[in-house]
Write a structure and sequence with these properties.
Order of helices and strands of chain A: HEHHEHEHEHEEEHEEEHHHHEHEEEH
Helix content of chain A: 40-55%
Strand order of the largest sheet of chain A: 2-10-9-8-5-3-4
Structural class of chain A: alpha/beta
Shape of chain A: globular
Number of helices of chain A: 13
Oligomer: homodimer
């Protein structure tokens, strides 16, 4: 390679909030020779991606495709296609990614209402039920795995309340997909988005999205065009699933190769085995952290296995520890965001990263520096 | 690799309207180990990308960055940031990508006016001058290299007319950048977007964008938030150029490695040499096509070197020829779009593809099948 900076990239153990470590097979897939985006063999790969994403999302939704952008592009896709000006939207919010939904929905001219919960605590179904008494929303959205706090929101319970009201139910599964069960059909989720760089262990750049038939109907019945050409699903669907596979935009060919490989690796290991591995490594991490005097920030029942918020002990300087780990041990962990900046570390054990030897390496590094 | 379909990918000579062939160095860059999107070394790579894109665009514009999506995401970025509802927009249109601009600007609530020219012919500066008499537009947009027809629009001459009016001047350089001169500062272009999968010979997935200070001022002075969270430059700029490099969305790390390498390969060869290579291979292609009775569709003065529209002879079946070339010779060429479907082939000699041996291989295949 010519670029000096690329030659100087040091392989790093990615234990932050994403990106996560990428298996060699996925790097190999990434650099498979490019095909044209209308090549019949590439169309076969696209079809295979749709099918394997359906398995991953546990859904029969026909509209299950990767959007050509990172996780936030998936969020944008869901909102911009499903929300029309004046629609009533409720966001159940307890972290950065709930706030982001609120910001986005407002930009689209929705009447946005927010039910807020303290960062580090989960959305409380009983509070949602109370909020919905006598109110009527077109769409209700929640983040499954709040990457900013390490909290798992009880999506299955929330769904039972939301779906009674007739609102569309939108879920952010950026960090949860491929790490804990995400059951789109069983939980009656109408729209869901994820990202490739968390538990799928693929580099960032794509956002798997799935929509129920109800959601697709809402999009097809829109009064106005989707105010976003690039993410307009009424056109994108013709490229991904139409009879004629009409060109919309040039698909990110090589990233799609990588996603195809990454999802196959997960399905080959088996979804239940993958969830079990995340749960076990999370347990192991907890025990090892405890030995060196560190504790989880979130209550046990709502802890995410793949994204661990850890309380920074009093008197310990957040940034200098993280810099030391990166510089001297080639390990990346994340800091806190917003009100949790300086108060927590975010330790990711996502996808390929979720292995005992990685936890051991981190603990060794933390021991040295603390 | 586990995925059977990926193992079955056949290396293909990409001579369509993009993607183009990718050099080995770029594939190698693509599969360099992922770093975190806030890793100091990755920030250095981002800085290097900005600088090298400035050289490529021939601009000092501080806001010169790759957007996290394909070329159409660059188009979306320019329009959604620069256009507010009620703004008057004029599109100079002579192909699919002009039409696309028109569609997009309409979605954003602009008053869209279009000056249309026949497909296969260029935008005529005198007609633009006449159209602008007594009219006032906030933004005027044109495609530099119309990929759908193989026409080069005279951007430099158009600029002289547009910039007198005070309108912002927006240019699509998806197919031109890295193949013919694109002089952003000299031509007083206010906003420009490109794609990685044409003359940059990098896989699709990123869109280099550059904005003048006037354009940045227009964005900063907006009355309303940009109605697109993912592509909001007021926030993205903080990640790419802010003091604190604040996280916005997770950058497509590995695609950015590839872009970094691809642009360095071009700058190492030298811009003038790269333009010369495209011009020479275009000349050579023309002569070789003539020998087998094929002619360019576009008048000589406005032909693009990198995207060649070739008239399909009477009685020749477009699709079966292209299928034969792909199946038996592993060569992809493109068909016509819209009114030119079945009438032209689009033969790309973009970036790494622009080599004599590739033209020879194509001519051999065409000879066999015609």
């Amino acid at each position: 390679m010519k670029s000096k900076l690329l030659n100087e990239v040091t392989e790093t153990l990615l234990m932050g909030p994403g990106p996560s470590c990428v298996p060699n097979e996925v790097y190999e897939a990434l650099s498979t020779p490019s095909l044209g985006h209308l090549d019949p063999h590439f169309i076969r790969i696209m079809d295979d991606i749709k099918t394997s994403l359906q398995t991953l999302f546990q859904t029969k939704n026909k509209l299950t495709i990767p959007v050509s952008g990172t996780g936030s592009a998936g969020m944008e896709t869901c909102f911009v296609n499903l929300v029309e000006p004046g629609n009533k939207v409720l966001i159940l919010s307890n972290g950065v990614f709930g706030k982001r939904m609120q910001d986005l929905a407002g930009r689209l001219g929705a009447e946005v209402d927010v039910l807020e919960f303290e960062w580090g605590t989960p959305v409380v179904p009983a509070d949602v039920e109370k909020k919905l008494e006598g109110s009527k929303y077109d769409l209700i959205a929640v983040v499954h795995a709040e990457t900013s706090t390490g909290v798992r929101n009880p999506v299955e319970e929330i769904s039972k309340i939301v779906t009674k009201t007739g609102a569309l139910f939108l879920v952010d599964s950026v960090t949860s997909l491929g790490g804990i069960p995400v059951k789109v059909d069983e939980w009656k989720i109408d729209a869901i988005y994820s990202g490739t760089q968390k538990c799928l262990s693929c580099p960032p750049g794509l956002s798997p999205v799935s929509m129920s038939d109800r959601a697709v109907k809402k999009i097809m019945d829109r009064k106005s065009k989707v105010p976003n050409w690039y993410l307009d699903l009424t056109m994108i669907i013709n490229y991904w699933a139409g009879e004629k596979r009409a060109y919309h935009h040039t698909a990110p060919i090589n990233m799609l190769y990588a996603l195809n490989e990454a999802v196959h690796l997960i399905l080959d290991e088996g979804l239940e085995n993958v969830y079990k591995r995340h749960a076990e490594i999370h347990e192991y991490l907890g025990k090892e952290l405890e030995k060196i005097g560190l504790n989880f920030y979130v209550e046990k029942a709502y802890r995410l296995p793949m994204l661990n918020a850890v309380t920074i002990p009093d008197g310990v300087d957040d940034a200098s520890i993280r810099t030391h780990l990166l510089k001297n041990h080639q390990i990346e962990i994340g800091g806190g965001l917003g009100p949790l900046a300086g108060k927590i570390w975010r330790i990711g054990i996502m996808g390929h990263t979720a292995r005992k030897e990685n936890v051991d390496r981190l603990i060794k590094g933390l021991k040295e520096v603390l």
